Amino acid sequence: MTNHWIDYQHSDVIMAIGVNTAENHPMSMRWIDRARERGAKLISIDPRLTRTAAVADLWLPLRPGTDIALLGGLINYTIEKELYQREYIVNYTNAAYILDSGYFFADGIFSGYAEGSYNRDTWSYELDTEGNPRKDPSLQHPRCVFQVLKDHYARYDAETVCKIVGCSREDFELVASTYCATGAPDKAGNILYAMGITQSTHGSQNVRATAVLQLLLGNIGIPGGGVNAQRGEANVQGSTDMAMLYHILPGYLNMPQGMDHPTLADYNAKETPASSYWSNKPKFLISMLKAWWGEKATPENDFCYQWLPKLDGKNHSHIAIFEAMARGEIQGMFVWGQNPAVGGPQAELERKALENLDWMVAVDLFETETASFWRRPKADPASIKTEVFLLPAAASYEKDGSVSNSGRWIQWRHKAIEPPGEAKSDLWIADQLYKALRYHYSLGGVFPDPILGLNWDYGQGEEEPDIEKVALEINGYEIENHKPLENFTKLAADGSTACGCWIYSGYYNDLEDPPAKRRIREQKGIGTHADWAFAWPLNRRILYNRCSSDPSGKPWNPKVPLVFWEGGEWRMNDVPDFAWKDNPPENTAQSPFIMLPELQARLFSPGMADGPLPEHYEPAESPVHNVLSSQQNNPVITWWQGLGKLATREDFPYIGTTYRVSEHWQSGIMTRNSPWLAEMAPEMFVEISVQLAEKLGISNGSQVFVSTPRGEIKAVAYVTRRLKPMQVDGKLVEIVGMPWHWGYRGLFPGDSANVLTPHVGDPNTTIPEYKAFLCNIRRA
Amino acid sequence: MKITRREFFKLTGLAALAAAVVGCDWDKDPVISYPLVDAKEVTTICPYCSCGCGAICYVVNGKLVSVSGDPDHPINEGALCSKGASLLNLNTVYNLRTHSPETNPNRLTKVLYRAPYSKVWEKKNWRWAMDRIARRVKETRDATFESQEKGVIVNRTLAIAHLGSAALDNEENYLLAKLMRSLGIVNLDHHARL
Amino acid sequence: MSNVVLVDTQKCMACRGCQVACKDWNRLPAGVTKFRGTYTNPPTLQAHTWNHLVFSETDKGRWLFASLSCMHCNDAACINVCPMGALQRTKAGTVWPDTDKCIGCSICAQYCPFHVPQVSKATNKMGKCTGCAERVSQGLKPACVTTCPNGALLYGERGAMLKQARERVEVLKAQGFSGANIYGESEMNGLGRIYVLTETPAAYGLPEAPGYNATAWVWQLARRPLGTLTTIGLFSGLVAGFLRWRGERMQQRRGDYTI
């Protein structure tokens, strides 16, 4: 999230696209309603009439997987009707940059394409003699980003968009005129998104499309604006920050690659840009190495850089891991508080892959489907070799620790009670695991140095580790005296500082009064609540906030000033996100995006795997042909072996889509074991239109089978008027909607929707395409 | 028979009369006491979605008796949705027959172990489990460890996978990120990507 | 002056926080349910479900939500018909069930036009919303109101809530909900829950003209002179036992869901 939940109260129009905010983030509605009391409008873009759509001012039903078509239509509408904020885009974005003459786009393909991937050399700027990008602030040059953008989206006219999306022209015009009116400098449009946007073979480009639209309308960096990714789990922001992902180290430092980064010098040279705040990257990495290997990390040994594992240039994401497991290449697995046997795509493939493991360590509050895969329906335990350890974990209020919400607020949870029986905190389990490993490696083994040398001293024997020591290490401290660092501006690249995760620096910089534990509400102000908890980075609540004022420092919306120039100084309701000290507005007017080398936002982005501008492609499985180009799918999709054959339109004529309900959470392992929640939503069901039910003779509440080439599930039919067939390019298309919370364990077992979903994902992130696939449905 | 509005008024008149004649003994409130007077209040953050709502755990004699919204919390100001309001259930449920509180019977309270080809879980103690897990990790890591690839030091194993969790705290995730990288694990992901 | 709950159905997003917060505060168990082609679950109020969210779809494809619980009627059938005097009016104006006095005869369940009181087979006691009397006496709001994320449930003095309801109706009419109306102002001589609706009460599953069988009155008159425990003991042995059996039969025939 660029902004935060409370800030929604300042929005004038809120567009929820690919997010069912009332159901999955109910408290968001508290702040959306505050905005609506001032006259703000809520737009819900969703294939179904959800609980969000039911209370919204406008609902536009959209065919799953066509978000770029719709957003492209809004971009085109904004440009065509000149609703964009010109002064904003000229100063704060790369709209004026002139592109390399080799760049082109033709029939769904960008320049540089060959054999399933792009060479991105031509997705770049034309440079002047000094090596700086050439610009045309008049935005007239035919190769300037703005003109290229304009041409690209001219193809997304209302008629074409409606044909693809399956909505009416009237609905489109209403949404466009309502939302694009936030291009007025004093109006704030807010885009909310979640997995409806990301779970797609063009998910990253869906997100990019929201960003492009928001930049054109001048909605980034302002109160009530932003691109607000509503994340699905209490600490998915934190677990991402802490690099529970193969491609990064804590604080979004790229994992070293064997071929590119053989030494620390290579890493620093290739990973550190000349401009932007990332020019400090060596300080972040070296401080992390000092936190991990302490005294062992010295300048002479490159701070133990070689003790970090290096990647082999390949994908090691969720899908890739299970593909490797299915091939028998993975022998052991840890799985903490996660349940891929229900939540993973093509779940039967993933469950079967687990049988290839020699051992599995699962840690959870309840018995998950993943931990009990060996006794799943139709499995034969006598033929499954896997040794399984299921460790009982403490619940959130049975231990101490912090979590980071979607608005990047790091908040402390205090221990209220003891865990039941022998359940233990994950911190204790990690500590004991390390101690057991240290013992065994102290007896010898292959390259034990990084394990034995690990800086690990959080508690004695079997006592609960001292979490404050862990927090201090994440926050960072001076090596010399172990004093907490104020924040990451104090980090050094010479080994004098240690810091586990640089972006968290400052969250625990005062052991007596740690910011993450602070509970002081703002008495008057704009809802920033700066003394309530700590928001990374540097307690900044709204990112890119230089953009909240015009180039001269005057707030675009004087009613909600954020960071602004008045009386010869910067005044602020938030921590400024730019080099503000001793810097008058004119010096920062063209550098509000300090994390990008351009220091300006990218309407045109050279960094994506699948194109510098979002382009509509059909999902991997679609009932129709791409209307916009002859390129049916994203041209750089990885077609994994496990996927097998795609569904054909003849045998699987309906669009399947998955989602969540208010009463359950993710794979349901906590909520299906909470009786109060389970009684409200006890069984797996599928939602279908009245028309489809009539055609197939399915009555409400009866049992049905839903199938794809990946498998078949049984569920209760919910025949509803909230789901309607759509007119897509002259063809009537039906949607089968299904929640994915159920599995073969818990209080109310049921089939998993993910048995049906495909092992295919986005080329940038490999997030699976759960939201749009083809299926069939029949009476049971 | 439904009563009409007219009949209703007639009957209400009669009721007033009857009450006046018989005398009503309900002019005082039933005895009701506030059950959380002595409870210890501990603040927490909801473990479900990412709104980050504050909640208060009410603890009496070391037992959790109620979890409700934290009125001081700026995001939710005392409110909670159904999932947030159900937090008690992760630890304590009410028995349908007796209406008495009990530990959620589905909670794992012992280490469970499934031996190869076995049909059942066995209960084990922590010490045994940790030692056995460490041996298995070491065995796999040491057998598959790659020190170099094409002359470059890579120090990794591709044979162990680690799925972390957005359900864990920051400090827990940090320790796991550190520990797993020290083992050379690169097949490391979690449901942020799902 | 009595306080009431104002249910603003057009603000309600059906998160069902109210349904669960009620169970947390009142320490109620969950039962075993099935999915029956609607999100409403359990399908009715129960002895251990005192608040539930009713989901209704209209012919025009709208999805309506209404948090349903005891209406705390000013003219409460249950108070009038209970042979044990187990239902009492509190100073706050709510109807308080005295579980110690309840004999589980189900008569209240038969006469309530909203099907609110239900008798538990497990405990043989009627269970229903108490108006969170313990909370209200401490100056707190009922648990359902406190937990509501966005002000779809409000709590306050009846006159003030009615005023607010009327203002909301005007706002909703201006937004195009021409049928916006208030429910509970005069029904049953005034309900302890005032609903702001955008469709007819029936569209939300609420009875259009709630009332109760006038024979209830017999109970009211019959019970008062027999106001001693001895006579009630005699009386209940004979009549209430019969009525309990009959009440259970009636409930079964209605297909209500109780455990």
What does it look like?
The mean pLDDT of chain A is 97. In chain A, the strands form 10 sheets. In chain A, strands 23-25-24-29-22-28 form a 6-stranded mixed beta sheet. In chain A, strands 3-2-1-8-9 form a 5-stranded parallel beta sheet, with helices on both faces. In chain A, strands 12-13-14 form a 3-stranded parallel beta sheet, with no helix packed on it. Among the domains of chain A are: 5-229, Dimethylsulfoxide Reductase, domain 2 (3-Layer(aba) Sandwich); 641-779, Barwin-like endoglucanases (Beta Barrel). Chain A is α/β, with parallel strands linked by helices and 780 residues long. Chain A is 23% helix and 15% strand. In chain A, strand 4 and strand 5 (109-110) form a beta hairpin. The radius of gyration of chain B is 29 Å and the shape is elongated. Chain B has helices spanning 5-22, 82-85, 126-144, 170-182, and strands at residues 40-45, 54-60, 63-69, 92-94, 101-103, 111-114, 122-124, 146-149, 152-163, 185-189. In chain B, helix 4 links the parallel strand 9 (152-163) and strand 10 (185-189). In chain B, strands 1-2-3 form a 3-stranded antiparallel beta sheet, with no helix packed on it. In chain B, strands 8-9-10 form a 3-stranded mixed beta sheet. Chain B contains 4 helices and 10 strands, in the order αβββαββββαββαβ. The relative contact order of chain B is 0.06. Chain B has 3 domains: 40-103, Phosphorylase Kinase, domain 1, CATH 3.30.200.210; 108-142, no CATH class; 145-194, no CATH class. Residues 226-232 and 251-259 of chain C have low confidence and may be disordered. The N and C termini of chain C lie far apart (37 Å). In chain C, the strands form 4 sheets. Chain C has a 4-stranded mixed beta sheet. A two-stranded antiparallel ribbon of chain C has the order 2-3. Chain C has a two-stranded antiparallel sheet with strand order 4-5. Chain C has one domain (1-250): 2-Layer Sandwich (Alpha-Beta Plaits). In chain C, a hairpin with a 6-residue loop joins strand 6 and strand 7. Classes of the chains: A alpha/beta (780), B alpha+beta (194), C alpha+beta (259). At the A-B interface, helix 11, helix 14, strand 12, strand 13 and strand 14 of A face strand 1, strand 2, strand 3, helix 2 and strand 6 of B.
